Amino acid sequence: MTIQFTALPTENVRALQRGGPDAYGRTPERKISDGDGMPCRHCLRNIAAGDVYLILAYRPFPDPQPYAETGPIFLHAQECERAVGTREPPEILDSPDYIVRGYGGDDRFVYGSGGIIPTGAIAARAETLLEREDIAYVHVRSARNNCYQCRIERA
Hints:
single chain; five-stranded antiparallel beta sheet
């Protein structure tokens, strides 16, 4: 099984960077990074100290529904290049562990698929989950705050 870590779609990010509304219909907040823990979900790199970034509510699902978690994310305020999908975990995954959870084709999480996984074992766990027919994709989320980090798909 080949997997790839994927970033947010550029068309969604550009709309937000241009002042479009977030998942709650609000304009993203603009802040200046102190360089500590501000992962951009588009380039999948940490936002450098002194760079302007956006804080906004994001729902990584096509439609609202009971399982469509919405939460805060960071993006570079200026346009950045979307990370190329790769089998290797992106630089933003620098905590010791993350929540890794499978979702079905109906965009609802698959019960029993989630767990807190050491960072070095995320790719192997995602491969195991994506071998299942009932799992369409996987989310990586913060183990401490449940914030969306990135998605893992079959390559």
